[in-house]
Amino acid sequence: MANITFTIPSVLNQGGGEKKTEISADSLQDAFAKISEVMGDDFKRRVLEGDGTPRSLINIYINGKNAKFSSG
């Protein structure tokens, strides 16, 4: 299980300012499911597709590198 830190901008945090939340999860899909439980249904609808995958406009960084542009 890995610790994953989500940095949530204020626009996705219902105007509450930027928020950092750490989640322990086995996979990114598991992490998004857990953060959605913490942040609520509005966050889930805005961030995830119906199948639970992140929407294309959501940036995911792994060790500081954008996962969309990394290989593997």
UniProtKB/TrEMBL annotation:
It comes from the Archaea. This is 4-methyl-5(B-hydroxyethyl)-thiazole monophosphate biosynthesis protein. It comes from Candidatus Nitrosomaritimum aestuariumsis. The lineage of its organism: Archaea, Nitrososphaerota, Nitrososphaeria, Nitrosopumilales, Nitrosopumilaceae.
